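Good morning,

Both structures are done.
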Amino acid sequence: MSRKEPVVAIGLDAADPKLMEKWMSQGHLPNISQISQQGIYSRLHNSVNYHSDSAEFSSTEPLWVMMATGCLPDKTGFWDTVTYEPETYKVGCDAVYGGYDYQEYKPFYALGSEYRVAAFDVPVTRVCPGVEGVQITGWGGHHPFYPSESQPVDLLPKVIEQYGKNPVYRKDNGIWWDKNYFQWVTESVEKSVASRAKICCDILRDGPWDLFMAGFGETHTLGHDLYNLSQPDHPLYEYTNKIDSLGDPMLQGYQQVDQAIGKIIAAAPDNAHVLLFAVHGMGANHTDLLSMMMLPEVLYRINFPGKAALGRGDVKQPAPPVITRNIRGGWSAEVWRQVYEANPIKKFWETWTHKKFLHGSKNGLLSPYPLLDNNVELGWMPAVWYSPLWSTMKAFALPAYADGHIRINLKGRDRHGIVEPQEYDNVCTEIIDVLQGLKDARSGELLVKKVIRTRKSPLDSDPKLPDPDLVVIWKTIATDLIDSPDIGRIGPITYNRPGGHRENGFLMAKGPRISPDSSFADGRAVDVGATILDLMGADIPPYFDGQSLIQPSLSLSQKN
């Protein structure tokens, strides 16, 4: 340690750099623009390492853990919030404790007594020992996989008493078809941003702090919930946008965040470095349908040739219209009404009858209704409905929020495995061949960018490996209808959340050590923590995979 220079670091969860750049150039975000113009700005391009290759990566929770620990997932072992148990074929996704536990690698700001730190609502973090100062997690945020807690323990209750409960916390679900939901989410985000700004400013004034760090989960909510009302590249835009009468609600939310950033900067010390970043961005959602619904059905049809469970269509027919109404009032119910039934009378009845009569299984799949009624983890996600069949399948799709995840049902590893280790490569190749033929039925474009193998050998037992054997990297094509020469047509399927994750983030910073209008070479989310430590004058741990972006010409070993 050679010096102490205060840093104010603010993470805008899922704030997309393309949108930010456009809105800054148009003058809509003056406070954020000022940081960029007075200092450094560049995009972040996220990738992770698998056995066979590296690949772009857009999964929220692991990216925030990469930022907080300075380590990639192959080091932490934290790839996903979804867990799979090979002994039972069960999946879990703990909505509170499903994030990283920070036992092996602590947050970069756990710097001991030499540094005073305030960390407020940094996504996917925990209250950890080794932080001299205050920590608050879970006041707000987009469905956080971490608990609501604080250091000291009575601080969060005091914050809630003074500023109120966060109106968005664990309540935003991207219900694009509900006008009442639109009204609620726009009003709630505005209230959440205003309260967050007050909390941040008050904590700053309680300093001095060597590091003040905060997260804005509202930008994540805005992207997931309002993208179709804001950006013409979303397939639902022409059916749902009201920009002529209401304006751009996503931009309006970002402008509220910009005003909050201005207030926080005004409350910061004059000599502070101010750093603003997003670990990933947001675009038209393509992975909800492809990874959560389409891929499980693809694997079903590969395993049971000639059969279809959900979304059976006819590749010989023209592409049907996009579904623009949600007649069942929920995405799971909308997907379930696409369950295959050969009898047209039964099909009509199942489509329009009351949900209380639709609790039975169909085509070997679990009905979502009892799963939802009993609050089964991930019961709303179509991939889970196929789980009774997993033990009989050569391979199946695990529930996934971003990239597609495929598990091989392997003898000697999965309890009822049916694939011999010597057959593993052939099964992987068979599946990859089918995946590479998947097309968007509306444009004719191929959908799969890359399929990656995650293991050196079938029975590799390294506990830090991801659960899937194959990871499907999709092209960024938001489609509701896919065609395959091998398994036929799937869809159309009702769109889920309008916005979906992108691997690109950004970082901008201004301060005494940063030249105006400068930039840096390629960076990743894993570099953000190292950059903050560098600006603070603190040591960067030698185990970090990340490095400071302020002096990219210096190697990590040279700096240490």
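Second structure follows.
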Amino acid sequence: MPRRFPAGKPALYVPLVILAGCCAGLFGFVGSPAAFAGPPSGIAPAPEVSTDVYFRTEGPVSGPPAPWLTGKDYRSLPLPYPLSESRVVVWVLAQQHTYFGAFVLGALLLVTLAEAGSMFCRDGEPARRYRVAGRELLRLVVAAMAVAAVLGAVLLAGLVALYPGLMRYFAAVFRQSVLFYGVLIVTFSVTTTLYYYTWPTNGTSPGRWDHLGLGLFANLLGTGLMVVANSWGAFMMSPAGVDKVGRFLGSDWDVFRNATSLSFAVHRFAGSLVFAGAVIATYAAYHAMAAVTKERKAYYDWMGCMALIVTLMAFVTIPFGGYWLHRTIYAYRQQMGITMVGGLLAWLGIILVILIGALIIAMTYYLWQRIEAESGGGRFRHQAKYVLMILVLGLLVYVTPHTLVMRAAELKAVGGQQHPVLGNYGVESAKQGAINLMLVAMIWSLLTWWRSKYMETNSRIPIVLTSLFVVGSLNILWPGVMGYFIPANVRVGLQVPVVLTTLSLLVIGAWLTRALVARSTRAPSSGWGTLSPRGCWALMFIGVTVTWIMGLNGYRRSSVRLFWHAMEMVRDNSPWAFTHAIGFAGNVITFNTLLFWLGMLGLVWLAKEKSPT
């Protein structure tokens, strides 16, 4: 019989696997011929001083120029198509590494929040639940960290083997940051493993504040890892710290702070939190449906709800982060911005907004299933149809395209790239208003669930809360309507108050709801363990959809460079320097989604231990 992790903690070989994988990948990269090989023979010595291609500052030339890659620099695999295509292999490896890395980063933060919650709840059943859930999730984090480390080492080996010329150049540009990344990942692995093995078993254990500090330090290290790795991907979209021929100018800081690095990192951090919360919610939904005791079902029902709330809170910031990233991409190169939202990748953008709309509807549906399970939720049932109407109308506006990618015959039949009817309605300001109204409906549902757990005795605060959301919704609606009648350079500035209104409704609404429930009496039952199977299936749908969206976003950010490894710096001269069809890309993204969830199933089985309840 295969051995599982011992009850209470993973096997000791997990941190050893992590360290071995990290060290092998690090020394394999910086110690490989690709990393230390000099510039190709026959190239004249570089001048001593050159000008940065982005910052326009001068610096000493400290690296070789960007290579002109030939067929010898690209290697295929002796496998059936499409596995013989090098970029498909790297695509799968990179996406799996990203999935597990994002889960580790986001779930570790949730674990630390759970530990802090157990401390601030003092004693009793809520504190116990937070402690037990934090330890259970931390066991998954440690196991997933080992998988992420191994996948990272395999990915690095694949890049060096399949793209030696490209990696030789990147090694010269990223040499110092790769060494720093290696130190960070080893420190992070040791700190996280220590965080797990020293997890307090009792709420009154001495030194628990020190243990919480250890968790915060581990989160800081994990965030640093994500920021450094994202700077490499951002450099490929917006090179900086090099001159016009790609020579490194000696400043690692200029390479790091390229045009898209900050917005990319912020968007990725929020995305990691959404992804981890969705995965944990799916994990809890499975266990809740498979539970054979009321206590176990109630525990996992509670865990799924808490994970969904964190997912929702992080998801509210995603539109802001996503549009900030699009703005920085467009500001760096208009060509990339047009390709992403109105050109070659436009149909993928339509698929993305459909999935985002479906995700908001699924999260809101779960919340209303949660409200229905509460003893005091019946009085809010009449609101469900109005919330659904707002979601459906908002989704119809959000998915309406302004321009379409069409064949020549279709262009001739339509009379141009803009549809004579739909082209008048697919304005971005209206889409922003629609998605923010959908978020407001979801936030209202969240606050309604909070209220359904109490029997309200104060009649003034609900009126103030309702008035707040009505006024806020109107403040979101009018810029979207005015967007049809004002110039584009004016309506762009109106999106700032729209986003601020949504965030204000979340913060002020939560404060008013807290004041309301403080003046109310608790309902007879909490509703934990009474969620319908439809609510559990909604959580599973959310987990799979978030995984698919994450893969789609990664593909769009990579494809926006078209035939450039590094935008206008290192050209892709391989036989595969073309953008795949939407169907092929969708198949690979779906394969990555299925592969990740199969890996998570194996991880959950390996880390399984006796029920915490």
